[in-house]
Amino acid sequence: MTDMFTGCRVLLVSTNYAPEHAGIAPYATLTAEHLAVRGAEVDVLTGMPHYPGWRVHGDYRGRWRMVEYRQGVRVHRRRGFVPTRQTALLRAAYEASFLAHGSIRPPTARPDLVLSQMPTLAGGVIGGGVARRHGVPHVVVVQDLMGAAAAQSGISGGGRVASLVTSVESKILRGAALVGVVHESFVDRVTAMGVPESRVRVVPNWSHVAPSTGDRRAVRARLGWHDEEFVLLHAGNMGLKQGLDVLVEAARIGARETPRLRIVLMGDGSRRTHLERLATGLPNVDFLKPVPDADFPDVLAAADVLALTQRASVDDMSLPSKLTSYFASGRPTVASVAAQGGTAQEVRRSGAGVVVRADDPAALHGCVAELMGDPGRLAALGARGPAYVRERLSPEAGLGRITAMLSEALAG
Questions:
Q1: How do residues 322-335 score in pLDDT, each as one tens digit?
Q2: 52 cis-preceded (ω within 30 degrees of 0)
Q3: What proportions of the chain, in percent to the nearest 5, are helix, strand and coil?
Q4: What is d(CA 119, CA 15) in angstroms, rounded to the nearest whole number?
Q5: What is the CA radius of gyration of the chain?
Q6: CA–CA distance, 199 with 412 (Å, rounded to integer)
Q7: Partners of 264 in beta bridges
């Protein structure tokens, strides 16, 4: 029987794509490659790689446009403005530059289907425009709700532009054939924008990292983590919405009360320099650069507990992509997040972590200190993560949900 994607021309629009390995890029990349394996002719319109450091990767600097082929996918890259810090004005310039470059001669003459990844309003506008021009379905996958993000993330000037962002976002989503959201907590927000619930599908992200295969003690030794130390690791973007100051302040408490505790922040982002300054003089805080994809699972598994933090104001606009990797690692998660948000719901449902009050370093430190003294609970929480991945977050299940939604849009 012929696969319905055989010969189907798909345009995927996403500002982030491989070789970026954090955030939404892995999901855009794996979706495109999966469709290509199923026989689709896939074009991707994206930017030059820049995330999470918000600096264009060295091999791509100085280029305006380029086409490259990755795993059977034709990738069209457009240069855009990449801000080194985040304000509403700079974010607007980032969006406008991608919109301007991406709208000139879209990369495919007539697709059968357009798939846009949001965040980025520009990607949704471009995808919707191409779909309307050719009379084909436009499907949007919402990773972050951008209007809510502007209001909740703490970005300078975000509150003043939130209503405008929501207006544009609503128009994009209302015009889509189907809207996929990565967590059920987004559904009410999307339907409030005027999207009928009958056109909304829940398509959770999946775990895209392989299980650790390294020798845990050897990895810890290579990283300088001693056997007697208890390591709390945050891995991923260091931006505003993460509210990572809470980890540094928890380390300040730990320096007095739990000398065995070492807090490690691994990654890059717009707030890394600020956090390094804030941690000056603290002997129990380390900063690591991002590690290669092949080493990432081993580093997660080498920690004792994994930290996930968000500002208290971040409620129902984002589900951190790192969470699926955390679950797969076999290490417990301590989530300092809003109690009623989607992130807290997911941690509780997994049974693989503990939720504490957001922006409360004493609560965060107290929870970690309790886990330090309870190896049995630590092991039980860690074991639930891989089980939850097998039950709900496998790549097969995640890609199956995405392709089912795309099949529905094509059939409709």
A1: 899 999 999 999 99
A2: yes
A3: 45, 20, 40
A4: 9
A5: 21
A6: 11
A7: 233, 286
Give the SS3 label for residue 353: strand
257-273 confidence digits (pLDDT tens): 999 999 999 999 889 99
- Token pair of 17, please? 């794509």
CB atoms within 10 A of CB 103: 15
Mean pLDDT, residues 216-231 taken together: 96
What integer pLDDT is reported at residue 1 of this predicted model? Answer: 46
SS3 295: coil
- What tens digit of pLDDT does each residue of 105-155 get? 667 679 999 999 998 899 999 999 999 999 999 999 999 877 666 665 566
To 10 degrees, what angle do helices 375-392 and 322-329 make?
A: 120
* 130-160 residues labelled b (16+ CB within 10 A) or e (exposed): bbeebebbbbbbbbbbbbbbbbbbbbeebee
Residue with tokens 């020798």: 215
Alpha helices in 306-374 (DSSP H): 322-329, 342-350, 361-372
The neighbouring-strand residues paired with 247 are none
Token duo for residue 368:
């970690």
At 103, the pLDDT band (50, 70, 90 cuts) reads confident
Distance separating alpha carbons of residues 339 and 354, to the nearest angstrom? 11
Q: Please, what is the angle between helix 158-174 and helix 88-103, to 10°?
A: 30
Residue 24, phi then psi, degrees to nearest 5:
-85, -10
- This prediction's pTM: 0.86
Q: Is the pLDDT of residue 27 over 80?
A: yes
C-alpha closest to that of 285 among 326, 235, 231, 357: 231
- Partner residues linked to 1 by β-bridges: none
Alpha carbon separation from 54 to 20, 50, 85, 195, 269 (Å, rounded): 11, 5, 8, 32, 7
